[in-house]
Amino acid sequence: MRVVRRDYDHARASKLAYWRGLTPAERIRLADELRRHALLLHPDWPTQEQRALDIECHIQFSERLERAAATRKR
Question: I need a labelling partner for 8 at 20 to 30 A (CA). Which of 15, 32, 43, 69 fits?
């Protein structure tokens, strides 16, 4: 099996340049297209369990940001 060498730094820079070039409206449109595609593949997505896990992750992240901000103010 042959392994293809890839220039990951170039790929990363290219991806960042692409996203930076988009307007906020274009980013929202693309995110909505991804959401719609996910719903086509999995009409029951997200489940209540997935929603609960997602909100818990958001809460934990928010708490970490608040702690970091409080630490920085010292």
Answer: 32
